[in-house]
Design a protein that fits this description.
Layout: H1 2-17, E1 25-40, E2 47-52, E3 57-62, E4 70-73, E5 79-85, E6 88-97, H2 99-103, E7 111-120, E8 126-135
Length: 136
């Protein structure tokens, strides 16, 4: 009888340890933040305006995945939220004009990712990544 109980205990331990869910949707935590835009003239020498990044695409990558996990758009106030996340590691990013590439002599600067890495450590956690600054 002890042998059967030992086998059942080992089997249960294997099953429960292999059921740990990776980072991604399906939880009750969230990642929130804002996007702020600084609008420059065409040669990045004069700031024309600064404002909340309304209707900006914000992306998230779950854990060590290669592709995009989800994409959302910011509110008119520049706010965003990725809800229903499980504990794990995440990367949140937006695209911005590359001011440094222009200043280095590139007349048509490409977009670059402005990203922040974040970790959710427990259930029902709301992680604020702050403000992501982008150039336009």
């Amino acid at each position: 009888m002890k042998k059967i109980l030992s086998i059942l205990a080992i089997a249960l331990a294997v099953v429960t340890s292999s059921c740990k869910k990776p980072a991604g949707e399906g939880g009750n935590s969230s990642i929130v933040g804002m996007v702020h835009v600084t609008n420059y003239n065409s040669n990045f020498t004069v700031v024309n305006a600064e404002y909340p990044g309304a209707d900006v695409d914000v992306y998230i990558i779950y854990g060590d995945e290669v592709g995009i996990g989800n994409r959302i758009r910011t509110t008119p106030e520049g706010k965003f939220e990725f809800p229903y996340l499980r504990p794990g590691k995440y990367r949140v990013y937006v695209y911005s004009k590359d001011k440094d590439a222009y200043l280095d002599g590139n007349p048509n600067p490409p977009d670059k990712a402005v990203s922040v890495d974040v970790e959710i450590n427990k259930k029902k956690q709301k992680v604020d990544v702050g403000t992501l600054e982008i150039f336009n």
